[in-house]
Amino acid sequence: MKLIIILAFSILTVYQCPAQQKTTHGITPQEREKEFQLLKQTEAGVFAAVKGLSDAQLNFKPAADKWSIAECIKHIAAAEKELWAMATPTLSQPPNPEKKVDIKFNDDELVKAVEDRAHKSKTFAALEPANSPYSTVPEALAAFKADREKLIAFVKSTDTDLRNHIVVLPVGTYDTYQYILLIAAHSNRHTQQIEEVKTNANFPK
């Protein structure tokens, strides 16, 4: 997870046209659909990236200090679970919109920053593939799918005011709607990494 770069963004003001004004439930139908589509598309991307790969291909490492595809999948699955676990306590508390002053990016800038693999940084120790609770790729994929589908169901049905429940973490401050975008973008970031591994000249045929 490469979130440190997000802190460098200057504050961006988001203007809403009348058609985009918030509903009484906190997010518009357009926002709900946008989030749903990103979650579904990035979920499908993970599975498409590993479809039909052999064990040799899954475990190929481009270099000693680079992740294999199997390691990427274990990281994606662990992050899917742990990142959302960081946000859920906020949802059980009263809205805290006063924390919005610390949000320094808009939705599109956030997704772009998380997906941008030109910027590198080290993930949390708990999310390192070596510390993943999943021992095999099928196990990790099954866990990822289960957790992603729960998140999709939440987005489709929630009446929670996601824009006014603010997640405050050491790496940045996000409204909960943005934080879900971040989770989706994170899986896509590592899907790109998987595709990079597959283009290596020594990748098994």
Radius of gyration: 18 Å
- Mean pLDDT comes to 88
The end-to-end distance, rounded to whole angstroms, is: 29 Å
Low-confidence stretches: 1-24
Shape: elongated
**Oligomeric nature of the chains:** single chain
Largest sheet: 2 strands, antiparallel
Q: What helical percentage do the residues reach?
A: 40-55%
Identify the strand order in the major beta sheet: 1-2
CATH class: Mainly Alpha
* CATH third-level topology: Four Helix Bundle (Hemerythrin (Met), subunit A)
Query: Can you tell me the CATH superfamily?
Result: dinb family like domain
Element order: H for helix, E for strand: HHHHHEEH
The domain tally reads 1
In words, what does this structure look like?
With 205 residues, the protein is mostly helical. It has one domain: dinb family like domain (Four Helix Bundle (Hemerythrin (Met), subunit A), Up-down Bundle), CATH 1.20.120. 50% of the residues lie in helices and 4% in strands. It contains 6 helices and 2 strands; from the N terminus they run αααααββα. The chain has a two-stranded antiparallel sheet with strand order 1-2. α1 runs antiparallel to α5, α3 packs parallel to α5 and α3 packs antiparallel against α6. The two termini are 29 Å apart.
